[in-house]
């Protein structure tokens, strides 16, 4: 079914209506049942909630723990600020509960439409799955409404094994559940005949993410402030659907082009990637072979003649596909990742045949990987494992919006299930996906007492102090997302500590030159080296020890209270973000935020991204992509075209765009590309390592049909 404007408008209305239903329901539950008022910020003492049974009393306690956990990072310096902070936090809780429940129910409906789940949502109480469940349960689980609630909980728990980020019923974002009347209203909306065909479409879940915040809400935010005022506004104001042709163009010419060059043009991607830009005469060079000198006759040739000239492609080592990593640093609902999944499937299939022809040494691979033909008994076993490999090893994504992380993970999981269905792999025989690489950029937890308790246990003491520094540096994660250079912050903190240690040792030696009690007071330092061994081994392994400490804490933190579990869960997500930032990628594709960034991040961005900073934050995303790319890696980006003309970005264009990378393809798309966004846009591809001759560089002017502009480029 085509996602025309009428269809998109109907889906937007569905999301708006169900969001209102759920927000109203959960606000009422907080007020009437749990003594928490999002409107006033008032919190009733737990002891006064005598009407609650044990289960709901526990929920009331957990909601208060969640609120306190969120407040730990808020400004509560004055009574007025404290009240506003409570209102904001309770509003956040309502919003989180609403979008989590909506995402869960819609995810189950999409699973039904794909044959992954017996009918459970489509007909409400009359669904086949529930009818069977109720017959088996009899009257033991109560009336129909109560029984259906428990049935849905059991389905959530089953899906949580693969998608805990979305379906974990014990997560702070998913503690509440609508009462019967509200649930039936939501189910009625989900099963409306107007949107029934949409549940089989891959784009639907991404549109639900986009439409959760209405166009009107975005307009109100822009009217209130030219720049986003907080991380939520930054996320909401930049929720634009990336058109499919843009996704394909950027992915074809980054990931697709990289594999095409690795195979020296011997790849089926040149037929299946319809936007892959190739020159008529390409000469692939061997390893160590330099580009031959060419006569400078370009000025005498027409553009058409220039394009027909031979172009030399530098050697690109053929990598094991398990080592090829792609990142979307502002992933949203993962449009780029879904299309990249298709390309990776073809890449893996070709890799199996290439290894069969060239042998195990035909690929460059990391040491822990065995050759494909040694890792799998046959091609069928290999292809059965490919969807898991793609999610666990290849596709990476970062976003500042937790809703995006929920939906992006779901989108890739559904795409993997479709692949297994196409292979006729039964559900029980499908490899379990143990982890994904989709992470939310958010600060480390804010409870100072728990951080102090954790770091006090670490030895040597300087290790705990370094961990504290990392927690402090992570405070900006929710505001700048993947622009936070946390991997460099870790290295810098260790370098500072090492320098302080060397000064400490020097002072200790000088102290020996004085009589007892006569030595001058040594300069104080933040770091405590009293229990640090004299040898230098600690500094050689300090970075890895910091990372291992964060990982160990995230995996084994004590769980004797819910708030402590929240602290540990936030630390785990913080570590996952650090882990993603420390990797290096072959391809970065993105539709980053447009316009200026957050005011609170302006100072950081101007320091870390000189020449780009906060004026057009998409320029900083480009610079960041260069930081985390492997040599020869490619960037594919759609952004405001003003990056290429703004006087304030002249330094960025000189030092970053043209000096540190080669612009390979550029398409000027104009306006009306990203929904209601008024920005003039451009889609472009660059390469980190400079080439003697770009594959093509052309300026294609605005057209009424943007896809035609891209097609005209690929035909050159």
Overview of the structural elements:
- Helix content is 52%, strand content 7%.
- It is of the alpha/beta class.
- The strands form 2 sheets. It has a 7-stranded mixed sheet, sandwiched between helices. Strands 1-2 form a two-stranded parallel sheet.
- Helix 1 crosses helix 3 (79-113).
- The longest helix has 35 residues, at 79-113.
- The radius of gyration is 28 Å and the shape is globular.
Number of DSSP helical runs: 27
* Biggest sheet architecture: 7 strands, mixed
Radius of gyration: 28 Å
The fraction of residues assigned to DSSP E strands is: 5-15%
Strand order of the largest sheet: 5-4-3-6-7-9-8
Give the end-to-end Cα distance, rounded to a whole number of Å: 32 Å
Number of strands: 9
Runs with pLDDT <50, length 5+? 692-703
Mean pLDDT: 85
Backbone shape: globular
**Class inferred from helices and paired strands:** alpha/beta
Oligomer: single chain
> Share of helix among residues?
40-55%
Secondary structure layout:
Layout: H1 5-32, H2 54-71, H3 79-113, H4 128-137, H5 144-160, H6 164-167, H7 180-190, H8 203-211, H9 215-224, H10 231-236, H11 244-262, H12 269-272, E1 282-284, H13 303-307, E2 311-313, E3 326-328, H14 335-358, H15 372-375, H16 379-394, E4 395-399, H17 402-422, E5 438-440, H18 448-456, H19 461-473, H20 477-480, H21 486-511, H22 537-556, H23 562-582, E6 585-590, H24 602-608, H25 617-628, E7 629-640, H26 650-657, E8 662-670, E9 681-687, H27 706-714
Parallel strand pairs: 1-2, 3-4, 3-6, 4-5, 6-7
Antiparallel strand pairs: 7-9, 8-9
């Amino acid at each position: 079914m085509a996602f025309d404007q009428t269809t998109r408008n109907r889906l937007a209305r569905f999301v708006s209506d169900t969001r209102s239903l759920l927000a109203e329901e959960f606000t009422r539950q907080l007020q009437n049942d749990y003594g928490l008022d999002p409107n006033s910020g008032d919190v009733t003492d737990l002891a006064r909630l005598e009407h609650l049974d044990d289960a709901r009393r526990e929920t009331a306690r957990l909601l208060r723990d969640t609120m306190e956990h969120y407040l730990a990072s808020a400004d509560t310096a004055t009574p007025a600020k404290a009240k506003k902070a409570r209102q904001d936090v309770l509003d956040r809780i309502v919003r989180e509960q609403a979008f989590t429940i909506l995402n869960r129910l819609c995810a189950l409906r999409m699973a039904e439409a794909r044959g992954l789940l017996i009918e459970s949502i489509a007909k409400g109480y009359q669904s086949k799955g529930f009818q069977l469940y109720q017959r088996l349960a009899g009257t033991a689980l109560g009336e129909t409404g109560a029984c259906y609630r428990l049935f849905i909980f059991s389905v959530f728990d089953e899906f949580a094994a693969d998608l805990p980020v979305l379906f974990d019923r014990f997560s702070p974002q998913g503690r509440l559940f609508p009462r019967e009347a509200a649930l039936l209203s939501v189910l009625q909306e989900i099963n409306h005949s107007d949107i029934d065909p949409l549940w089989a479409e891959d784009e639907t879940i991404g549109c639900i993410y986009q439409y959760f915040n209405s166009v009107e809400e975005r307009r109100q935010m822009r009217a209130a402030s030219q720049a986003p005022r907080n991380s939520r506004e930054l996320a909401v104001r930049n929720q634009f659907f990336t058109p499919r042709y843009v996704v394909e163009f950027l992915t074809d010419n980054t990931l697709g082009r990289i594999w095409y060059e690795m195979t020296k043009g011997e790849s089926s991607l040149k037929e299946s990637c319809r936007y892959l830009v190739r020159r008529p005469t390409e000469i692939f060079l061997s390893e160590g072979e330099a580009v031959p000198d060419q006569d400078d006759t370009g000025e005498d040739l027409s553009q058409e003649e220039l394009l027909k000239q031979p172009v030399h492609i530098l050697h690109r080592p053929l990598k094991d596909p398990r080592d090829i990593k792609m990142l979307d640093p502002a992933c949203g609902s993962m449009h780029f990742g879904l299309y990249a999944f298709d390309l990776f499937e073809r890449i893996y299939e070709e890799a199996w045949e290439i290894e069969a022809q060239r042998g195990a040494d035909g690929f460059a691979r990391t040491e822990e990987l065995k050759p494909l033909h040694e890792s799998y008994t046959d091609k069928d076993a290999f292809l059965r494992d490919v969807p898991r490999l793609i999610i666990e090893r290849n596709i990476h994504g970062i976003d500042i919006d937790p809703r995006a992380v929920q939906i992006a993970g779901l989108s890739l999981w559904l795409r993997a299930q479709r692949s297994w269905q196409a292979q006729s792999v039964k559900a029980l025989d499908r490899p379990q996906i143990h982890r994904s690489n989709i992470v939310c950029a958010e600060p480390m937890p804010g409870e100072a007492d728990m951080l102090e308790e954790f770091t006090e246990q670490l030895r040597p003491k300087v290790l705990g102090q370094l961990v504290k520094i990392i927690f402090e540096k992570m405070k900006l994660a929710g505001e700048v997302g993947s622009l936070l250079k946390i991997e460099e912050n870790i290295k810098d903190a260790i370098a500072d500590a090492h320098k302080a240690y060397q000064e400490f040792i020097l002072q200790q030696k000088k102290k020996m030159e004085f009589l007892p009690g006569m030595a001058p007071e040594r300069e104080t330092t933040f770091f405590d080296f009293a229990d640090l061994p004299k040898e230098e081994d600690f500094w050689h392994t300090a970075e890895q020890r910091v990372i291992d400490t964060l990982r160990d804490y995230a995996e084994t933190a004590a769980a004797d209270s819910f708030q402590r579990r929240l602290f540990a869960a936030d630390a785990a997500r913080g570590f996952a973000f650090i882990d993603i930032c420390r990797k290096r990628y072959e391809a970065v594709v993105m539709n980053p935020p447009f316009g200026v960034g957050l005011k609170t991040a302006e100072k950081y961005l101007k320091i870390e991204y000189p020449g780009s900073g906060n004026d057009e934050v998409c320029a900083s995303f480009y610079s960041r992509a260069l930081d985390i790319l492997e040599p020869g890696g490619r960037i594919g980006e759609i952004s405001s075209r003003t990056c290429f003309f703004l006087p304030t970005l002249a330094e960025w264009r000189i030092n970053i765009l043209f000096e540190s990378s080669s612009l390979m393809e550029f398409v000027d798309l104009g306006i009306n590309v990203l929904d209601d966004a008024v920005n003039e846009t451009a889609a472009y591809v660059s390469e980190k390592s400079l080439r003697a001759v770009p594959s093509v560089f052309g300026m294609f002017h605005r057209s009424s049909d943007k896809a035609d502009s891209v097609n005209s480029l690929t035909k050159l």
